[in-house]
Automatic annotation (TrEMBL):
Keywords: Aminopeptidase, Hydrolase, Metal-binding, Metalloprotease, Protease, Zinc
Cofactor (UniProt): Zn(2+)
This protein's name: Aminopeptidase N
Gene3D superfamilies for this protein: 2.60.40.1840, 3.30.2010.30, Neutral Protease Domain 2, Peptidase M1, alanyl aminopeptidase, C-terminal domain, tricorn interacting facor f3 domain
Domain Peptidase M1 membrane alanine aminopeptidase, chain residue ranges per copy: 232-442
Organism: Rhodomicrobium udaipurense
Record carries keyword Transmembrane helix: no
UniProt-listed InterPro entries: Aminopeptidase_N-like_N (IPR045357), Aminopeptidase_N-like_N_sf (IPR042097), PepN_Ig-like_sf (IPR038438), Peptidase_M1 (IPR001930), Peptidase_M1_dom (IPR014782), Peptidase_M1_pepN (IPR012779), Peptidase_M1_pepN_C (IPR024601), Peptidase_M1_pepN_C_sf (IPR037144)
Length: 880
């Protein structure tokens, strides 16, 4: 907590560390309120620096300092200066020395969940980004890599399991029911990858043989009694390990890989070397407790954390500005993994839908920042959609330009050059370029500039010359506080469709266009395609080959052709979304003006054809039926937004689809049943997803068939996907059936926190006017705890981030509810508070009355004296 204005940290001020730590020995004696940590550090003046420093400044927070020794001799008080952030030791030797420090920390009091804390009696650590400094004084920065040896001591009955990174080298019993374990990690690592876990944990074990023939033991640790929910996580881990060998030639490097699931965790999971710590929501799954989406997320996050072992751990970041180096690349890798496990096109659709909705919103608002930011107050605020997901898009773009093999060659060179190092985005882009004899430096602009470029496309056709001329140009939106931006290279995958929907071969200057890819490398460029027999329809930005806003000015007729007949499945969906978006915007505007709005029957019919087409995958058809969200529509409108009008417009379109497509949807529902028993695989999940979309539209259209099926499904479903799916549809229908189903669900699952989170989230996301009152009840429910991040996300998070119409309620009560929660949570967990307050990022796009109310709520937060730097940074940017 602080009262003065927090300091900005700048990338341009990066300086290498004055000292390195070649070896780190930690002796941790666990105790809930007084954990004692003795460190012994082998400190070496940084040989790369000319000037020798005479003092060393170590990071440290919330520590009680007991003792400091250098080379075995106590350092007297005059040579020590401790603040609430660091410890400076003066007159240190000019040659390598041993530094010993003894401190005490208080895990039980740690509700910020950064550093060493207790989660339901289990000691665990979270050190990224700057949590290690809450365990001991250290050079807590990613460019200081050290070999760790850790001794953990605790009371055996309370902490029978003692874990840290690397290999277990010694264990032993001690008097007084105590015991210890010593772990050694042979790989030098930065402190943010350190982990320690101790507690009463059950374990599930498996093993895998790496492709070079090394046996690796795989262990998942969970709360006792939850062992039967680890099967999917273990299977996913094994598939991820194999995939990384096959696709990128990357093998695991220790004899053991461990995962621990904990109930209190600020994020999804953490890639600590050899000892990943997970939010239990991303490990535990059983058919009756987890939905298909949970299974897919578990698979993806397990893979993500595992892939970090190379992209993040073996090659790490020089400083936190380079965060995208590990996160963007690792998200890209997990996306590719999921695409291979499931349907590639459906995965791409899911990722693009999310990117457009979430990252484009961030990039268009007050929190916009480059994929590699140039300054920050609190690094924890930069684990963002931009760093992660736009960062992944940049890797994908580079792969598109280099081709899969070229990209692989580039990554091989990156690991050859930089294994064991802490590097920058420039190092990454250079390795990709050098391996392919290409100069990719222009792509660095993508890393350094905020904002989503708009790609304009105009196609003209000359009958006489048989030529199609495509004019591509780019612009950046005005963003307050962002400098003028330069044109970026934009890879554009495209196709031209002939009169019968057939692909016209692309030829420019007599040469075929490889992979249908052109690159716009200036502000504006014209591409002339030859030998085009008749006026073609343009299929643009296939595969979403660059993260841009597309303005193709296409005619409705051409868009409908593409929805029906594009040979590229991704673009069929992309055009359907664009059409739907334009359509809902028009309906909302008519609605706001009190005009009569008419649903476009050609669009509904085209979507119906796709839904009915059994030659297409079920999951793909389900994705097709999902309309853009209300916040997507708000983003497209961009100013003076009336969320009620959007809600009504979207509801109207869904009801019209449900009514007009009734026969198709009923038949699709009947013929898509998955095989029993429940199987979480992609094919069965796709069938369930399509049935759910069909039922949901049928219910929106008030189909008796649909509503009867939903009611029955809510009572009889034997898996969580169908059970919760039915409950969600009932929440749209409302009335007694919904209330009864909610009660039944609660009775059945009240002892299962992960399932009850769904029950909370569903009610908090309801557009119904009584939701504000319900949320007040939910947070008073004994099952709610404001200190548990999953609970906070499922109530406040679901409400603020996922319920546009009620969060932006005309009364302002939604804003007040969240502002109060932010203030309360900031008192103990700033990271969680600052994520929640981010929900206000779009406040300026709403109509004046709502804007005024939101501004007032934000002002109330900013007026608080005791605001964390985390929340201060976000709110001050949002307010502008
Ligand atoms: N590196 C992890 C995410 C993570 C980041 C920060 C955390 O605490 C502030 C925790 C986890 C990942 O990408 O999975
Ligand atoms: Zn990550």
């Amino acid at each position: 907590m602080k009262t003065d204005t927090p300091k900005q940290i700048y990338l341009k001020d990066y300086a290498p560390p004055a000292f390195l730590i070649s070896e780190t020995y930690l002796d941790v004696v666990l105790d809930p309120a007084e954990t004692r940590v003795k460190s012994r550090l082998s400190v070496v003046p940084n040989p790369a620096l000319k000037r020798r420093a005479t003092e060393i400044k170590l990071d440290g927070e919330l520590l009680r300092l007991l003792r400091v020794c250098i080379d075995g001799a106590p350092v007297d008080e005059q040579r020590l200066v401790a603040t609430d952030k660091d410890l400076t030791i003066r007159d240190v030797p000019a040659k390598p020395f041993t530094l010993e420090i003894e401190t005490i920390c208080d895990p039980a009091a740690n509700k910020a969940l950064s550093g060493l804390y207790l989660s339901r009696g289990v000691y665990c650590t979270q050190c990224e980004a700057e949590g290690f400094r809450r365990i001991t004084y250290y050079l807590d920065r990613p460019d200081v890599l050290s070999k760790f040896r850790v001794r953990i001591e605790g009371v055996k009955p309370d902490t029978p399991v003692l874990l840290s990174n690397g290999n277990l080298v010694q264990t032993g019993d001690l008097p007084g029911k105590r015991h210890f374990a010593v772990w050694e990690d042979p790989f030098p690592k930065p402190s943010y990858l350190f982990a320690l876990v101790a507690g009463k944990l059950a374990m599930v074990e498996d093993s895998i043989m790496t492709r070079s023939g090394r046996a690796v033991t795989l262990r998942i640790y969970v709360e006792p009694g939850k062992e039967d929910r680890c099967d999917w996580a273990m299977k996913s881990l094994k598939r991820a390990m194999r995939w990384d060998e096959d696709r990128f030639g990357l093998e695991y490097d220790l004899d053991m890989f461990m995962i621990v699931a904990v109930s209190d965790f600020n994020m999804g999971a953490m890639e600590n070397k050899g000892l990943n710590v997970f939010n239990d929501a991303l490990i535990l799954a059983r058919p009756d407790t987890a939905t298909d989406s949970d299974y897919e997320r578990i698979e993806g996050v397990i893979a993500h954390e595992y892939f970090h072992n190379w992209t993040g751990n073996r090659v790490t970041c020089r400083d936190w500005f380079q965060l995208c180096l590990k996160e963007g690349l690792t998200v890209f890798r997990d996306q590719e993994f999921t695409a291979d496990q499931r349907s590639a096109v459906v995965k791409r659709i899911e990722d693009v839908r999310w990117l457009r909705s979430m990252q484009f919103t961030e990039d268009a608002g007050p929190l916009a920042h480059p994929v590699r930011p140039s300054s920050f107050i609190e690094i924890n605020n930069f684990y963002t959609r931009t760093v992660y997901n736009k960062g992944a898009e940049l890797c994908r773009m580079l792969q598109t330009v280099l081709g899969r093999d070229g990209f692989r060659k580039g990554l091989d060179l990156y690991f050859d050059r930089h294994d064991g190092q802490a590097v920058t985005v420039e190092d990454f882009v250079s390795a990709l370029g050098d391996a392919n004899g290409a100069d990719l430096s222009a792509y660095l602009l993508w890393y350094n500039q905020a904002g989503t470029p708009t790609l304009d496309a105009r196609l003209s056709y000359s009958e006489g010359a048989k030529e199609a001329r495509l004019t591509l140009s780019q612009t950046f939106p005005d963003l307050p506080g962002q400098p003028k931006r330069k044109a970026v290279p934009i890879p554009v995958k495209l196709g031209l469709l002939g009169p019968n929907g057939g692909e016209i071969p692309l030829e420019v200057e007599g040469k075929p266009v490889d992979g249908g890819l052109v690159v716009l490398s200036k502000k504006k460029e014209v591409f002339t395609f030859e030998k085009v027999g008749s006026r073609p329809v343009l299929s643009l930005l296939r595969d979403f080959s660059a993260p841009v806003n597309l303005n193709a000015g296409a005619r409705d007729k051409d868009m409908l052709t593409l929805i029906r007949a594009d040979t590229d499945l991704f673009n069929r969906w992309q055009n359907a979304q664009a059409f739907a978006l334009k359509h809902i915007v028009a309906l909302a505007s008519a609605n706001a003006k009190g005009e009569n709005a008419r649903v476009e029957p050609r669009f509904v019919a085209a979507v119906g054809e796709v839904a009915d087409d059994d030659t297409l995958e079920h999951a793909y058809r389900a994705a097709f039926l999902a309309l853009p969200s209300e916040s997507d529509v708000a983003l497209a409108i961009g100013e003076n937004v009336d969320p009620e009008a959007i809600h009504q417009a979207r509801t109207l379109l869904r009801a019209a689809m449900g009514k007009s497509l009734r026969a198709i949807l009923e038949s699709v529902y009947e013929r898509s049943a998955p095989a029993e028993p429940y199987n979480p695989d992609a094919e069965s999940a796709g069938r369930r997803a399509l049935r759910q979309s069909a039922l949901s539209l049928l219910a929106a259209g008030k189909s008796r068939f649909g509503i009867a099926r939903v009611k029955e499904q809510a009572k009889t479903a034997t898996n969580m996907t169908e059970s919760f799916g039915a409950l969600s549809i009932l929440s749209q229908v409302g009335g007694e059936a919904y209330d009864q189903a909610l009660q039944r669900f609660h009775r059945r699952w009240k002892d299962e926190p992960l399932v009850i989170n769904k029950w909370f989230a569903l009610q908090a996301s309801s557009p119904s006017p009584d939701t504000l009152a319900r949320v007040a009840d939910l947070v008073a429910n004994p099952l709610f705890s404001i200190q548990n991040p999953n609970r906070v996300r499922s109530v406040y998070g679901a409400f603020a981030h996922g319920n546009q119409v009620r969060f932006n309620d005309a009364s302002g009560a939604g804003y007040d509810l969240i502002a109060n929660a932010v203030i309360e949570i900031d008192g103990f967990n700033p990271q969680m508070a600052s994520r929640l307050v981010g929900a206000f990022e779009s406040w300026r796009i709403f109509e004046p009355k709502r804007r005024a109310l939101a501004g007032k709520a934000l002002g109330r937060i900013l007026d608080r004296k005791e605001l964390s730097p985390d929340v201060f940074e976000i709110v001050s940017k949002i307010v502008g």
